[in-house]
Design goal:
Helix content of chain A: 25-40%
Number of helices of chain A: 16
CATH class of the largest domain in chain A: Mainly Alpha
Distance between the termini of chain A: 57 Å
Strand content of chain A: 15-25%
Largest interface: A-B, 40 and 40 residues
Radius of gyration of chain A: 25 Å
Largest sheet of chain A: 7 strands, antiparallel
Oligomer: homodimer
CATH topology of the largest domain in chain A: Glycosyltransferase
Number of strands of chain A: 24
Strand order of the largest sheet of chain A: 2-6-7-8-14-10-11
């Protein structure tokens, strides 16, 4: 594996991390025994898996869709991560079976795509802008890397190297090669993964080629259009023909190094930014990295829901102008929050700044986790921050990107917790369990135990094989206003050793050293920037990393009539029976009262308010009871 | 003229009313010298007038539209009202010229419609649901009645009687006649006008026939569809095919006497309700009148903007569910507010209850008057209650119903001020000038003088030819919380003589009797019913009949950040230089301040506020300065 010398740390692979956590372990197990089998069944029953048999013939229903391959790929990736952390012979066998189908679908030249092999073979590479060929290839590459790392089996990896080699022969700057970039980014980050696992620099260069093709004049998507029929370019025209030709929908408005504002389809954008960060760090491309930082600031400071959801508009499944964050009409696709986690993790490794981990955690516990039901069988595609009671999770979608995406995130959660570098060990997330790392030439087991996210009291044990000098870096979350730290029982002064959001304890560690970190976790009232019009005069409640919401199930009144006075006492109570066990927030608010209103629609007398005891629950757990209204932002005084 | 025995009073015709008013006289003059000529030019230049020459041939542009006739008809009506109150030989001649064209367009059988004579003659009466034939006929009838009453000339009246006779031969319950009702109501109220001016009961019966056809099972519009091609029924299917066949768009969901909720296209609904009230009162149909009362309550208590605008949705140009009154996305068509005035006036004559006059006044000074610019040359079709600065009046519209509608309203304003009955004289609106009435067999001149709507001090002089006993009924507006009354200098106790919103001074009146009414007119904070979600936590400012708004021109800040504390002092100041001379409201509010916000999108520290001096102006006068934001509802504490 090539060194990734330009980043400050590297994530610790899930194969070296054990999660034993009150919050996450049941979710990971549900993911393994419910979600992954459920998604396999869905892929099987909808024809997505058997489509790789290439037996489709004209007239047969269903017709494979050109994004089907990616759903199966993400399922393989999720299942592989699961297998990596928990042996499961049946799943192992099933993976081999599916992978074998995929391998056999590969064409003699290395090409591998169901739709453009059996349905419209003459249209291979004809519409990169809209037809998801390179996107599917990217997900299959990610699946191959995950399966190889989980099992050591090279079958899919070899297949995908052949496919990638073929793609690299078609696209590129050399004579006889062609221009082009994927309309839906994904292969860029996948090729860097393939480079890292194979050491073959060609894949990194191909990733950089695709990234550099973006934003050229004329646009590769405009050049492509010249060869497309009206019928075949219908979607392109729909998405690109906006007061003139405009490919900002797929981040093609400017060369990537000149980009400063997140635009267009949010998942496309996030996947691109992941690939940009990867290529930047692998090639030492500072201009590309600076663009990543600018785009990051734009997303996080102007275009992100408090839940970590991004992409506020249904129209483009993506970004609009700064501060345009409607609540009920929020799009905030589950995949976009997940992809923000991917990007955050990449930026975090590069920058070693906890602000990236803060966003990773925010999206993880809120806007991404909301995407899956507590029982692991239903999914949100769209994650609004207010509902009239009509928005519900579904078992599957025709466009089924979100279900396997959340499955692969949960199955790979271990890889987000720790990082290691030559002289430092980092703890980003407080999730109980342990990991085996290599720091300063020493094997170090780090264990942590807490009731996070419900409690901020965290015990960390450091067990180097032998005494060794290195830095233990513990994240002080951005949401935490008061933290304390003790080493082997002795209080430490955090402020003197805190840097970029991490307290660093640099010393010669002895086996059995114990660190205790206490993160004060009161209920907080969050306000949004006044430019967020809908949230003016409203607050959201958060505690630790968790964002709360009001649900009608707890508050059988019109939720928009609840007013939270500034001095209202707010109490956090753990309720084991509620929604799988959650902390709920209770408090005394006011309720706008209409009992003294008669028939009149307008009047001079102010509307009365009366005391109202409300309960708020974690946002991620909403929509599990009698359908009803939901609101994150609460009217306040 | 037949007696309309079932109503408590009758409006006083404009020919007997003289307006000499600081607020209205300049508007009526602008209407005469600017708006009516402007609208004539628009009708002329767009081909609407010359279309009556019937010279259109296939291939010629523009193709007459099937609603064009109605625009010319409403212009004739407006011009006739203007002529009735102010001699204008040139306008008189122009009217004759246009009327002559129309007369010559009448077919031998009496039929009169440009589109279905020259463009698609084979489609006469084929699609009553969508093609506006009867709607155009209705407006031409109204024009004919207005022109006859203004000038005594029978030319257009005779033409329209012939047309109405022909329509009455085609439609009806008798053998050889056909079913059908207009998709856009209008002819119902017009036929009652024609009945009242001619005394021919056939027209009243035809109006009742059309009203009774509505809401039958199967729907007349469904039966009609069976004979229409796919192409010809495109609009019908668009508006009627909503989870099954649903003609609530044109109030055809239930028989009219069973209706209780205002549904569908707002102008259609209002015109229907006018026709229902007319037929109810002329035929003594109590069930029909009860339906009018129920519908009235539904509109006014559940579905009306504070401006008197109705029909909140752009999708159906009409009603949605109760309390759905979005501000920025309000539709609130000018025609609908005008038609609410028409309906209010009818209900007022029947019921003698000031709540009808209150709504008439509310719509007149706000949601209708906003429809025309101060210079009389530009018009709103849509009247939102909030704007980001992109909504502006236009000189004309392809569908130009609103401009001539506001012109005919202003030209006929005199007829809304007074009513008379055998023993009573009513003053509904406080507009300076005088009227000559017949009460108790005596000629009575009533004069009033005030600075209304800016001031509530009103002087009324009663001058019977000779001493006569009758009741003088003066409206105490619903907006007025404190009124005082003096007769010839002696204070009177209002509460003992107030009934249904009118103070009644019944006595033997002597020439020169003077009444002084003082309506206290403080600035009021209005709140909306808590079910109006967008207005929760907001107040609107009103003073007298005038609703105010914030405009960016006076308040160069994000208007949604202005907060009005409950105890803020509010001052009304007349500003002669502002917007043609208006009272403006000034006060000390708070402004949500973002100067201590850095880059962050969310934070725990509450957002600061700072004092802010704001100015509000009358809503009707908005959009006359540098384009910018506007808001009626102001955030409040």
């Amino acid at each position: 594996m090539p060194a990734t010398t330009n980043r400050k740390m590297s994530p610790v692979s899930i194969t070296r991390v054990v999660i034993d956590d009150g919050f996450w372990s049941p979710r990971i197990e549900t993911n393994r025994v419910v979600t992954i089998p459920h998604e396999y069944r869905q892929c099987k029953e909808t024809g997505r898996i058997d489509a790789f048999d290439l037996t489709w013939r004209p007239g047969v229903e269903p017709v494979p869709h050109y994004f089907w391959d990616s759903d199966v790929a993400k399922w393989i990736e999720a299942a592989s991560y699961s297998l990596a952390t928990r042996p499961d012979p049946e799943l192992d066998r099933l993976l081999d079976e599916v992978i074998e189908k995929i391998a056999k679908a590969q064409q003699p030249d290395g090409y591998l795509n169901v739709y453009f092999t059996v349905v419209e073979p003459e249209k291979r590479w004809k519409n990169l802008g809209m037809w998801h060929e390179l996107y599917c290839a990217g997900h299959l590459i990610e699946a191959a890397v995950a399966h190889y790392e989980a099992t050591g089996k090279r079958r899919l990896l070899d297949v995908m190297c052949r496919y990638a080699d073929y793609i690299a022969s078609v696209f590129g700057p050399n004579p006889g090669q062609r221009y082009g970039a994927p309309g839906h980014e994904e292969i860029e980050l996948a090729l860097v993964k393939l480079y890292r696992v194979t050491g073959n620099r060609k894949y990194l260069e191909l990733s950089k080629f695709f990234i550099d093709q973006r934003g050229q004049k004329p646009s590769v998507f405009q050049r492509e259009l010249e060869h497309l029929s009206d019928e075949d370019s219908r979607l392109n025209r729909y998405f690109f023909d906006k007061n003139g030709f405009d490919t900002s929908y797929c981040q093609d408005h400017l060369p990537v190094r000149e980009q400063s504002e997140a635009v267009g389809h949010a998942v496309r954008a996030m996947y691109l930014y992941c690939g940009m960060a990867d290529v930047a760090v692998e090639t030492g491309d500072e201009a590309l990295l600076r663009a990543c930082r600018r785009l990051w600031d734009d997303v996080v400071n102007k275009k992100m829901y408090i839940t970590g959801g991004v992409g506020s508009s249904r129209l483009n499944e993506g970004f609009t102008q700064a501060y345009d964050l409607p609540n009920k009409d929020a799009y905030a696709e589950t995949c976009a929050a997940i992809a923000l986690i991917f990007w955050s993790q990449r930026m975090l490794q590069i920058e070693a700044d906890s602000r990236y981990a803060d966003i990773m955690e925010r999206a993880l516990y809120n806007g991404a986790l909301s995407g899956i039901s507590l029982d692991g069988k239903k999914f949100f595609y769209v994650n609004p921050l207010a509902s009239d009671g009509t928005h519900h999770r579904q078992e599957w979608f025709g466009c089924a990107c979100c279900p396997p995406n959340i499955a692969r995130l949960i199955a790979s959660l271990g890889s987000y917790i720790y990082s290691e570098s030559a002289e430092n060990l980092y703890v980003h997330l407080y999730i109980s369990g342990h990991a085996d790392l290599n720091i300063a030439g020493t094997s170090v087991r780090i264990s942590q135990r807490s009731d996070y996210p419900w409690d901020g009291d965290i015990q960390i044990e450091v067990e180097p094989d032998k005494a060794a000098e290195f830095g233990l870096n513990l994240r002080i979350p951005g949401w935490c206003r008061k933290a304390s730290l003790a080493l082997n029982g002795a209080e430490m002064d955090i402020s003197s050793i805190c840097n970029a959001g991490y307290v660093r304890i640099h010393r010669k560690w002895q086996p059995g050293d114990m660190v205790r970190l206490n993160l004060d976790m009161p209920v907080e009232r969050v306000v949004a920037h006044p430019n967020v019009a809908e949230n003016l005069g409203h607050v959201a409640l958060s505690r630790g990393p968790i964002v709360f919401c009001l649900e009608e199930a707890d508050n059988p009144v019109p939720l928009q009539r609840i007013i939270l006075p500034r001095d209202a006492k707010l109490t956090a109570v753990f309720d084991e029976q509620l929604l799988g066990g959650v902390v709920k927030i209770q408090g005394e608010a006011l309720l706008i009262d209409d009992t003294d209103w008669g028939d009149e629609l307008y009047r001079f007398n102010p509307t009365a308010v009366r005391p109202y005891s409300f309960t708020a629950v974690p946002y991620y757990a909403w929509d599990h009871r009698t359908p009803g209204q939901m609101r994150v932002w609460i009217r306040s005084l």
